[in-house]
Amino acid sequence: MSEELFQPAPHVLSGDTADVYFLRTRQVMEAEGLNPTAAMEIFPHRDGIVCGMREVTALLRKALPQGAEVWGLEEGEPISAREVVLRVKAPYLSYAVYETAILGILAHESGWAQAARECVEAAQGVPVVSFGARHVHPLVAPYMDYAAIVGGCATASTTLGASMAGKDASGTMPHAMIICFGDTVKAAVAFDKQVEPEVPRIVLVDTFLDEPQEALRVAETLGEKLQAVRLDTPGERGGVTPELVQEARVRLDQAGFHHVRLFVSGGVTPERIRQFLATGAPVDGFGVGSYITSARPNDFTADLKEVEGQPIAKRGRIPGITDNPRLKRLI
Amino acid sequence: MSEELFQPAPHVLSGDTADVYFLRTRQVMEAEGLNPTAAMEIFPHRDGIVCGMREVTALLRKALPQGAEVWGLEEGEPISAREVVLRVKAPYLSYAVYETAILGILAHESGWAQAARECVEAAQGVPVVSFGARHVHPLVAPYMDYAAIVGGCATASTTLGASMAGKDASGTMPHAMIICFGDTVKAAVAFDKQVEPEVPRIVLVDTFLDEPQEALRVAETLGEKLQAVRLDTPGERGGVTPELVQEARVRLDQAGFHHVRLFVSGGVTPERIRQFLATGAPVDGFGVGSYITSARPNDFTADLKEVEGQPIAKRGRIPGITDNPRLKRLI
Amino acid sequence: MSEELFQPAPHVLSGDTADVYFLRTRQVMEAEGLNPTAAMEIFPHRDGIVCGMREVTALLRKALPQGAEVWGLEEGEPISAREVVLRVKAPYLSYAVYETAILGILAHESGWAQAARECVEAAQGVPVVSFGARHVHPLVAPYMDYAAIVGGCATASTTLGASMAGKDASGTMPHAMIICFGDTVKAAVAFDKQVEPEVPRIVLVDTFLDEPQEALRVAETLGEKLQAVRLDTPGERGGVTPELVQEARVRLDQAGFHHVRLFVSGGVTPERIRQFLATGAPVDGFGVGSYITSARPNDFTADLKEVEGQPIAKRGRIPGITDNPRLKRLI
Amino acid sequence: MSEELFQPAPHVLSGDTADVYFLRTRQVMEAEGLNPTAAMEIFPHRDGIVCGMREVTALLRKALPQGAEVWGLEEGEPISAREVVLRVKAPYLSYAVYETAILGILAHESGWAQAARECVEAAQGVPVVSFGARHVHPLVAPYMDYAAIVGGCATASTTLGASMAGKDASGTMPHAMIICFGDTVKAAVAFDKQVEPEVPRIVLVDTFLDEPQEALRVAETLGEKLQAVRLDTPGERGGVTPELVQEARVRLDQAGFHHVRLFVSGGVTPERIRQFLATGAPVDGFGVGSYITSARPNDFTADLKEVEGQPIAKRGRIPGITDNPRLKRLI
Amino acid sequence: MSEELFQPAPHVLSGDTADVYFLRTRQVMEAEGLNPTAAMEIFPHRDGIVCGMREVTALLRKALPQGAEVWGLEEGEPISAREVVLRVKAPYLSYAVYETAILGILAHESGWAQAARECVEAAQGVPVVSFGARHVHPLVAPYMDYAAIVGGCATASTTLGASMAGKDASGTMPHAMIICFGDTVKAAVAFDKQVEPEVPRIVLVDTFLDEPQEALRVAETLGEKLQAVRLDTPGERGGVTPELVQEARVRLDQAGFHHVRLFVSGGVTPERIRQFLATGAPVDGFGVGSYITSARPNDFTADLKEVEGQPIAKRGRIPGITDNPRLKRLI
Amino acid sequence: MSEELFQPAPHVLSGDTADVYFLRTRQVMEAEGLNPTAAMEIFPHRDGIVCGMREVTALLRKALPQGAEVWGLEEGEPISAREVVLRVKAPYLSYAVYETAILGILAHESGWAQAARECVEAAQGVPVVSFGARHVHPLVAPYMDYAAIVGGCATASTTLGASMAGKDASGTMPHAMIICFGDTVKAAVAFDKQVEPEVPRIVLVDTFLDEPQEALRVAETLGEKLQAVRLDTPGERGGVTPELVQEARVRLDQAGFHHVRLFVSGGVTPERIRQFLATGAPVDGFGVGSYITSARPNDFTADLKEVEGQPIAKRGRIPGITDNPRLKRLI
């Protein structure tokens, strides 16, 4: 299923998700017999990295006739504000109705990928996992996770999103499961008994008791099988802090559980990642959610710059093809 | 097709877009024979309005067994930060894997709806149209447009989004079409000739010439048939300003074109809408794009608050059902 | 002993704590046979309340000869910046060497009293207790506690300070005691067994376990005898928050312990008190430490304004007695 | 008398200035027969320098039994926030009631010493004298002056404070004396006649006339015997400024009084000292008062970290002895 | 001479102070035989009051032919940003070269007048005198003083400026004169002896001695003849402060000189005037200099809005005559 | 005429533009027979460059008797705040009444010159022309232009101002002329036909049409004779931006008009000049108006420092001649 997600959905192909004026443009120009070869260029509004090229290319491959040319950057490359990242040269009506979809795919995914990149760069090698599916519409949750992995995340929490990027999904257990069991240790024991051995045993330790206390109880029960504990302390208890991680580490070490790793989630941002690293807190992994999902889309703009070989542009733009040696022929 | 969009997609129903730990929770609890009746409550992080209830209810209707209870607010109602807006009471495993999807639908759509609401309130009766499809992934563009209309927009630019809310899509013509024709008047004449008469004649007038000059040229050609002109001046020419609208109005009026209305788009925000109104600029409609699409999702949180009739909660939350007389029985 | 604290100490009386130039002034003027009747006026630098008048009056009563006049405000009265709060009229050499001590007593105590007043006003009737002895030198700790009570505190933590103001000292138990017992419940039981029944049973509940959990354990053990619990959560666990107080209240109430009151300490300031009250957190008492002890002294200045009945003053000051109808004859 | 000031006062030794809960702790634990050997560690809240160790050591020497260990830094050493600066290892009840006094001594004196240090560092070799006795309670005025000298001040204005640090007190004359004489020159002449020759002749020159004018009058009268003049211009006349010092210097030099030095007081802070030096104002000494006396105490915290040889700590702290190679064995 | 200053100077009339392109415009249009009747409108950039209308009208009266119309506001009226304050309707070449001069006169004088107005409004009836001639070129110093009086000043310091507004100039004596006499009292006596009796005796009292001291010396010498003293304390002595004025008042009153008034100058601004009044300082007059002279000109813009009876305007402006019922026919 | 402008005007020489107290000083001192040789020093309040020395020297040459000395800096030299830039040594009454004029000339012209310098430095070699005559009174417009050229401007817009500095005035054509012709191209053709060939053909292109469009129309008509176009876009159309300049350049180049240069005016400041240069916009010249004309005068102060060879000064100033080796003998 995941490969399918790179192919255009039927209602995208039909233009039903496009701005309606493109449908009318097609209607008018076809009736007038006007379909010039036109070059469209696309540029982003902010610096960042580009994501969505793979999906856009699949859409254009479906749409364009023989002889069309598409030039662009590759998935995940860095981009600068107002730099041309995609150029399509083809009879205009073959792609007119897809301008909305192309811009939307690039805007949304590049926004997510860049936010993920900021976290990954802040983390300096400590793995970052995308945990934000709960903050976006489920139809785009896999695309968001895919973009996060393009941006450098180690993996993501949705099966579909992770598999689009060739990864296995990652996750521990929800508070709800622990509440159903009524006790973290009981939940951990059941998890360990029932789940395939290749799934890492990572236990959430902030549900009922103070975290270091709970971490010790779980470690004493699962012993060597416990791979990590996850700290997701709610804001009402101060959130996860560098001091909490350090204390958990020392108390686990003093009890001999050096092998148990510490995973941090909840309100994680690049700024907070840097604070953790600056204080030397021994974090073994970060889960990031809303920093990525609340990233503003990196809006893209499309301009016709050449019609039938002649430079042209609307007011405010430079007429003619823009030179960008970084572009590669994609189609 | 648009009604279908309120029904859960197959890969949402299968849990493939869920956080993987909910799949594992189901696996563990089923194996352990644990499936208590549990009450889950959901609250937002910010004040605003709720959107997505219609889609969430459709999903729960598919998922829950007989005897389950769902209480919630109605689509578009105002909400306060941390107020319970949805309560599900049912055997936990019947809905466990949908927590991710439910939260994501509400977060994304409520974020968009609230941003639209802010524009609509600023506009004090002047119609606002959602023009942001180009800034979001095409799979959610219709949901974004739907949410914008729930938030008060008059209509939206995508066929599918507008129809989800029972509206006709709205649009004029793109710069690209005018560039293909090489002249705004030629494009306007062709549009007028080819498009069904019930579609309003609204012409974009900033492509090649100074706006009032172009507006006069178009008005002189289309005469009474011209319903409106759209000003979408690029930032490189100062964007659309109250002074520009006033000047266009006077110059059209001085030439006798009192019937031609003025539609403004490009970087429109509540703040800018208020500036237009404060200066008395005679705007007849606003097109809003990125203010809505770059709204942060209004993140929601789900908590188990009761298990088998007993109040319970994780640390930091108040155990037991939260009283909220605004909730109505939905299922 | 506490009444003695209002009497001047021998090394204060001897002038050994005075600026040395007053000793030299006495030496020079005595040698020159100069000892005019002079009126000295004293004013504060900031608005606030005055504290230290009782101690200053005791000192002047010791120092001044027959016929001297002292006019002043009463302990705890409000004062304005630059308002005359004390006037001494006597042969100059009888009080010259005490200018340093008089100003210092008023500055230090008025600073503390005003800070306490700010807390008490913020608390709108919820009792505030002075807990700051650990932040000041032990020789002035009682004076700080006395000033805090003059400023409106219900009582204070030092025996001597409380008794200076006619109060019983207040306190619960330190973390150190609980650590020695190794368990909060064991410490609470021992305290209950050994301490006179009139001392309230107030147990500190943040030492080893999450606060509501610990509060419930203590309440289940001491039952009706438990008067209150104190929340003093360290910054490493987020400090005490309104949400924590509310949750502790609900969890205690759900378990039937409606009679157990909640006492909050740790980083308490007027600003934080107002936040607690604004959120409706059910706090039954506040312990304030460093806000009071880190208050800047309200510096006072002394000016000679009349010598042998003639108005005089240094440059920048108005010569002659300043009219202030609020002053009462003290000596 | 001054050496006595390093010895604990009777009411400190009795615990009457302690938080009352320590007295109750002693009562409970004695009754329960519990008196474990415990290690207490103490750390400051801010960076700075430590002061009060001499007095604390004297107190512990009185209190602790044979076999106790005390490790700490030396008077005046630099300290970092949260660095352990003192460790006591002894039967807990031998020192329990002194926690309040130990923390208070260190907090108050370290706060003063650090503020003095900031002035001294700003002054780059120009002597700084502590003039703040009038802003603190007379019982701690000597400790404040002692701490200021530990922080680097050349000396201080109280006899007792200066002698605690092995210095002679410094001072000129008060405005009040000049007002009694009615004229600065008359006061200066009387001072010169009556005071021991080893006391420097430093005359205050802002009482009645413009400073340079008065300085010249005094210099013309005392001639070579005049060592310095003090500028203490009130805020109502603009305070002392670099320009005033420069002008006074030039006018004295033009009249041949190159030997008369200039001493500045009144509102002096590190920031203002830096401004004086930056403009090259020829200041020969600074008197600092409220910058030192209004310094916030550098609050200290005490934690039990080991009981009967086992690492332990309250939540939020790291259990066990903290390694700090800078500590030396004091007892 | 002063009336002459309202007439255009020869090199203004000749166009030598105009932007050269107006000279070329005249040359081209005359050669082309083009001289249409045109309406020019002028508006300011900021709110304020208008000054310069009298001079502009005199210039236009010289320049315009029979039949021309000039409409405008009167000298000193309030104006709003972008409000039309002057309209000229005449053959264009009759006034083309004076656009520069008209705009410049209005800009410079309206800027000064508005700044003066702000001082006068702040002073609430206490007289304000324009003292800024020394901060502007002498050729415009009279115009600046005239504008200040239009803005509400009681009078000004230059003979010519004051007389343009029908006032007598006001002034005391400069520091330089006192320095030449070597003593303020000697200078005051000479002034009193030599100057016509109708000139008020106002003596500057900050040159050599502290101001209240000097004021008393002068008052004792001149007695009833002394009308006022001027305080102009330099910044190096803290400038004039409310406290200084109050002290001078008290010391004069204590010596019986109730009749001597106090005049304040030096760095006076509306903000400082408000501070004086707020503290109740008994100021009898303010001298204002650089606040008025450093006012930004209130730039004006001229637009042709009608040519041969047809509405016209450049891009960005509304074509046609602007309705403003406040304008009166001036020519 | 322009050389005359450096000579004092009759009403300046007569003292009618002076502060009236200087006239009274002359009257008093003459009557008292007092006319000592006095040295007056003048210093500025801010850093900058000095302008007005040429005019001041001409005035002093007229005023001073044989034997007088004048020392000063040269026109246009850099100056520091409070640095002595002019010293006059002569019988005091020979120059007393000119203090006002001397200070005013230096203040006003130095303020303008420094503002011009800031623009010129920002422009890094791109010519800057003074266009601000319309913002100042016409009597000082030439002095402002002269000062701007002293500050580094290439030339200025007034004939008289430019000629004072030995330059030809520069200008294009006003909007008013184009409006009279009704079309930019018609105005340009007439200009080209009627004006001397040595005047550059520079055409203003923002009056009626979008700038690049108009620039192309003019270039197509005048061809090689067109030297430059001026962009002066009003704020209502976004002002001139780097992007507009770049687009105009490209569109002119694509049409083969590489020789047409681009001149920018309207709201130009050093900050905006730097923005243009930072973006690489191909600007060939800047016209600056209100940045220069709204510069605060750099106020100057005059002090008598020596009378009959003796150092003297008012309070707050250093008595005696100030050493400044940069001063040269001017008279």
* Distance between the first and last residues' Cα of chain A: 25 Å
- How are helices and strands ordered from N to C of chain A? HHEEHEEEHEHEHHHEHEHEHEHEEE
Q: What is the strand tally of chain A?
A: 14
- Largest sheet, spatial ordering of strands of chain A: 13-12-1-5-3-14
Largest interface: C-D, 100 and 99 residues
Shape summary of chain A: elongated
The percentage helix of chain A is 25-40%
How is the main sheet of chain A built? 6 strands, antiparallel
- Summing up helix and strand content along with how strands pair, one would put the structural category of chain A as alpha/beta
Poorly predicted ranges of chain A (pLDDT <50, ≥5 residues)? none
Oligomer: homohexamer
β-strand percent of chain A reads: 15-25%
Rg of chain A: 24 Å
Number of helical elements of chain A = 12
Rounded average pLDDT of chain A: 96
Characterise this structure:
6 copies of one chain form a homohexamer. Chain A is α/β, with parallel strands linked by helices and 331 residues long. In chain A, helix 4 runs parallel beside helix 11 (270-278) and helix 8 runs parallel beside helix 9. The mean pLDDT of chain A is 96. In chain A, the strands form 3 sheets. Chain A has a 6-stranded antiparallel sheet. Chain A has a 6-stranded parallel sheet with strand order 7-6-11-10-9-8. A two-stranded antiparallel ribbon of chain A has the order 2-4. The first copy, chain A, contains 12 helices and 14 strands. The interface between C and D is large, with 100 and 99 residues.
Quickly describe the structure.
Six copies of one chain form a homohexamer. Helices cover 38% and strands 17% of the residues of chain A.
